[in-house]
Design brief:
The complex is a heterodimer of chains A (about 110) and B (about 120).
Chain A lengths: L3 E3 L4 E4 L4 E7 L6 E7 L6 E6 L3 E5 L2 E6 L4 E6 L8 E11 L2 E6 L3 E6 L1
Parallel strand pairs in A: 2-11
Antiparallel strand pairs in A: 1-3, 3-8, 4-5, 4-9, 6-7, 7-8, 9-10, 9-11
Chain B lengths: L3 E4 L2 E4 L5 E7 L5 E7 L5 E8 L5 E2 L10 E5 L2 E6 L8 E9 L5 E4 L3 E5 L1
Parallel strand pairs in B: 2-11
Antiparallel strand pairs in B: 1-3, 3-8, 4-5, 4-9, 5-6, 7-8, 9-10, 9-11
Classes of the chains: A mainly beta (about 110), B mainly beta (about 120).
Chain lengths: ~110, ~120
């Protein structure tokens, strides 16, 4: 049974701080990793993807992947109130011509002005 | 990314009835996906809809309960049949991009409440 675990939060950070969101996954064969942002009452929106160990930066967002530890994280620098949302981690295993994208339950982030 | 229109955006239904959710994409896509998001839960894949073939259902979901149509490369419907309060959820259609459709883009969702 493939699982993706996230701390449900809420995670509260002051405006301007770094928000750190964490995700662990159970399947060592996982190949692709994604972070989605979901505002309340809205559908998820893809914000980051990462496939290789290390860091991937996109603006204020940095995704970090450590396959040996089965751990992926999302850092949000200079957090803004508009970053307040639920962040979903998603993991995919490629193989046998098909794949299964598995989502975590999400971490709710609150950025306090 | 594709623009995905989904309707209705919300509905309140009576137990035992059925609701059909429509999903329209502004470009041709091979695979469309239907997800459910129950309160406090993660997104769960219901089925994958390919044009010209039967939908592929995930464990715990059956065609009689969630029939899917995929008449062309830009449109799909999901029907929630014989509804019960346990079916109250957000239903989302999505399309994938990338070599294996791994990057998902979602419609606006349908908030379903069953009384």
């Amino acid at each position: 049974q493939k699982e993706v675990e996230q701390n449900s939060g809420p995670l509260s950070v002051p405006e301007g701080a770094i928000a750190s969101l964490n995700c662990t996954y159970s399947d060592r064969g996982s190949q692709s990793f994604f972070w989605y942002r979901q505002y309340s009452g809205k559908s998820p929106e893809l914000i980051m993807s990462i496939y290789s160990n290390g860091d991937k930066e996109d603006g204020r967002f940095t995704a970090q992947l450590n396959k040996a530890s089965q751990y992926v994280s999302l850092l949000i620098r200079d957090s803004q109130p508009s970053d307040s949302a639920t962040y979903l981690c998603a993991v995919i295993l490629l193989g046998a011509g098909s794949y299964q994208l598995t989502f975590g339950k999400g971490t709710k982030l609150s950025v306090i002005p | 990314s594709a623009v995905i229109s989904q309707k209705p955006s919300r509905d309140i239904c009576q137990r035992g009835t059925s609701l059909t959710i429509q999903c329209q994409v502004d470009s041709q896509v091979t695979m469309m996906f239907w997800y459910r998001q129950q309160p406090g839960q993660s997104l769960t894949l219901i089925a994958t809809a390919n044009q010209g073939s039967e939908a592929t259902y995930e464990s715990g979901f059956v065609i009689d309960k969630f029939p899917i149509s995929r008449p062309n490369l830009t449109f799909s419907t999901l029907t929630v049949s014989n509804m019960s309060p346990e079916d109250s959820s957000i239903y989302l259609c999505s399309v994938g991009e990338g070599p294996t459709n791994e990057k998902l883009f979602f419609g606006s969702g349908t908030q379903l409440s069953v009384l």
